[in-house]
Protein 1
Amino acid sequence: MTGGADAVLKERLCKPRRERRLPGMETHIFRRGGFMHPRRRSLGGVAFAGALALIAVPALAQATSAPNAPPPPFLVASAVGEARIIPDRAMLSVAVETQGETAAAAASDNARLQSRIVEAVKAAGIAAAQIRTSGFNVYPEYSGGKTPKVTGYRTRNTVQIEVRNLGAVGNVIDAALGAGATNIGALSLYASSTDTTRREAVTRAVTKARAEAEAAAVAAGGSLGSLIELTIEPYGTPRRFESVVVTGAVMGAAPAPTPIETGELVVQAVIHAKWQFVSR
């Protein structure tokens, strides 16, 4: 082969070939041993991905338009549980009323009597911390007729007494009346701690609600599943109120001690529960 032919051949080998690029065809050039070789990637992979996308979009639209599956069935039951406790505390209001020609005179007489009442109550075993003033009023009294006139003034002083020994309630009332009290407003019996009784009431309420839910599940052709939710309503300390109204005639009655019957207090608990319903 002549030198001219060798030069032409070498020129053809070193010169990269001109490629015709079709739309969507990518060309990558890799260097090997000093020569440039094109590598083509056809549209096949892109077309396949597009086909998947075209298939997936209708499927997604169909899934979106399909109605949501109904939630699993469940049962809801509510119940009230009760437990009883004997009260061990008492709260009572003791008041004294006085009259006078002037407001100052009525208030002065009232202060003297109320101080004597408080001392008598303390002597009956009540500490000073268990006695507090709950009301004090001074107001005029009027005569009848078209033009009412002030005929005098009335003063009322009320103290609230906490009795921590129910056996002493009668003695406290008698001591207050004997010292000049004119009114025993209200007597409240309550329990100082109801935590244990409250838990007992909650237990009974849950047991009752579960029994009712199980009966409903069986009647509906299934059974009771796992507990989903349980709510216990808040409560206040149970108390039983009884009014004791005392007049001046009673104050001078026989010296027999005032009887106090404690009875029982009812503690309630209200619960709401939700269980899964298992179909057969």
Note: The mean pLDDT is 79.
Protein 2
Amino acid sequence: MQVYKLKSVILVSIFAILFAPLVIAAPNKTAVEPNSDSNDLTLTIIYDNNPYEKNLETRWGFSCYVKGAEKTILFDVGGESSVLLANMRKLGIDPKMVDIIVLSHVHYDHIGGLSDFLKVNPEVTVLLPKSLPRSVKDIVKRAGAKLVEIHKTIKICKDVYSTGELGGFIKEQSLIIKTSNGLVVITGCAHPGIVNIVKKAKEMLTQLGTEYMPPADPDVILSAMENVFGGSFVPVFTPPEKLLSVQMNMHGNEFPYGSEFGAVLAVVNKSSEVLIVSDN
């Protein structure tokens, strides 16, 4: 149950780190309007199974409150509405301030809180994958909320997009937010595969008027940290790729909820130091 405030110096989302910086205009394209200020974007995890604040309840599932974009968004609604609404109340989040609900996929621990949430705020717009069953769509219609079925990539509001449905057996949409420091990608379970979701986000960069740049060089990061915190705060750092190489071969490319999968992990020691591999 964490609150992430996106700063201009430190980006807490790993996907924002992967994509930063992304504010360079693509070649031969007209300049685009300024992106949302990442200083104003706040992501609050209000439902999951990781204890963080002792006064909040934990359950298997997910819900993320996105504030600071043009519209206030609730991404997924957890599995139990009582836990969702109680945690929102404890965090001082008014359900009636939510403009849009985005549901990632069909699993109950991501959509179970929908019905009771809509009793509190039926004025929202609910964006859900087109593949979701009629029973879920009927919940939205009965509540009088606006229903939008998502199949392809769409713009939700200024600088906020859906990837559209990705995957095979379990179709899932993810949220992409374009900020002044790069893209933030929010996923549910990432059933289509996180690599495929990131790939889709990269494909969207051209459409959004930006181009992909690889992660920053470790030496550049260290130099920036030394300037901000001083040399004494920065440990001696050796890039992992100089110490070892890791390759994982997995059987299959989709992994349904709760299923097992097979994988072979190969670790090669590239340093002169002894390498210890342990299941701990």
Note: The first helix runs from residue 14 to 19.
Protein 3
Amino acid sequence: MKQNFIIKVLLLNYVLAAIVTGALYYFNETSSLVNNLYGVLFLGFIPVLGGITGLFVARRWGFFKSAVGRAVIFLSLGLIAWGLGTYIYSGVYNLILQVEVPYPSFADIGYVLALPLWVIGIIQISRAMGATYGLHSSRGKVLLLAIPALVIVASYYLLVVVARAGSITADDTAILKVILDLTYPFGDVVILTLATLIYSLSYDYFGGIFKKAIYLILSGFVLMYFSDFAFSYTTTLGTWFPGDWNDLLFTTAMLSLSCGVLLLDPKFVNKDTLETTDL
């Protein structure tokens, strides 16, 4: 499967998604057939296609035989899980059952499963990039303490005070919703913390050859963090609708993650580099 061709397909799909979002705003559509198809055609399509293709990339790295292979596998499985969750959310609940904001729902299985898969993928990337070596310096030790503290404080303000009006759960909330209300912010904090640490601590990967791929992946997780914040905020206000700017932000995050994973294809590395690099 040609990765360059798949990336072009993903980019074309994203451009169409942006056009559709603009059209929905222009015509003030919030509950049309196009709104309900947005997740099926765009938001779910990009991560599923990117994740499936990513598994072919992992095969070129020997699957679990290398840190990069393991990273690509878990990142790809996370994309697939998240995309399938979106297909359930949009295709089943929004389109068929006409439920505007299904929560909790079976879609959450895919969304929640994606979190640990992505965490494992990020950890494997850190090992491949040599992020742990950065912890040996005094600067690295300071960052290890400072970044999690800053992320936790900022996340509490954004995800709890702003997005959820100062409370994660309501007093009469069902136990499943309580668990999910705690899981999503916690997962966002862990992923953003790891992504920020890796960005701060890592040395050039393969002499910078895969820098674009790594930046796209880490940027994708940052975009996911703010997408989750925006979704929580707009659903709290009751202004969210399928295919709005928040869904486009999610789509942007999925595009960034998918393209980043595909650009980890070893065909972008010359043979001499592969032979002299510890993977």
Note: Residues 69 and 181 are 32 Å apart (CA to CA).
Protein 4
Amino acid sequence: MMLVQQMRRVFGCDVLRSQKGVSLHRLIRHSSSTGSSPVSAPSAVDLAFLHFPATGTGSATNADNDTPVVFVHGLMGSAVNYRTLCRKPALSGPRDVFSIDLRNHGASPHDPDVSLHAMAADIAAFAQARGLSRVHIVGHSLGGRAAMATAILFPELVHRLIVVDIAPADYAAAGNEVSKSSFAVLKAMSRMDLVTLSSGADGKTGGNRKALDEALAREGIQDPFVRGFALQNCLFDGQQWRWRVGLDELIAGYVRVSCVCPSVLSLIHISEPTRPRLI
């Protein structure tokens, strides 16, 4: 109940289960009583994703058992994080399951707009392009924030919402240690000299992942698990190490990633016919 009350306070509406019907290109405007300008819709990018088609092996236990599920990863993650889970017959048996790469992550395009509003627009456009009128969304960490924003901005799309390891709170403003450490990891990654690390001691090009790990440790990231997770984003293209995550974009816009973006979400007004119902 405390989580629901917090979401009401921050987002200004009830969450989490939407009514039937979908209108993904509906322009969501601030309540006319406030006199504020409309919230402009950001341009969506074409998200990369993994698709796990329904196998028909599951058993239908309720009316919405075949509703597709969309998994949304956290900061510096990617669609492959949920590959094993998505393949489980209990999940992908009766329904299609998708795992997406958020903008500036995985194989999705890099874009300077790292706002939750933009991420929600991406998810809505992804669903519409595949004819998905209603979905369940599972979001972890940053993906949970993007999922919550999607439920607020596109309530007709989100049937059920599962948010993991995150709350609708302004972690940056609160000086949260996790928020600080995540930013520190991004900055440490950006300081690594990938050109030099792409060449071995003999001057020949080579992909030495151990050298990457040691370099990130020298930049102050002492936890080997954190280094390993971060370095999943460093790929060798045959000539040089390259970051697949949009480091510059995420660092420049980190405040928008780690806060609730009240400049967008607090302006949203959802009319009663489409207001989500509490689960």
Note: DSSP finds twelve helices and seven strands in the chain.
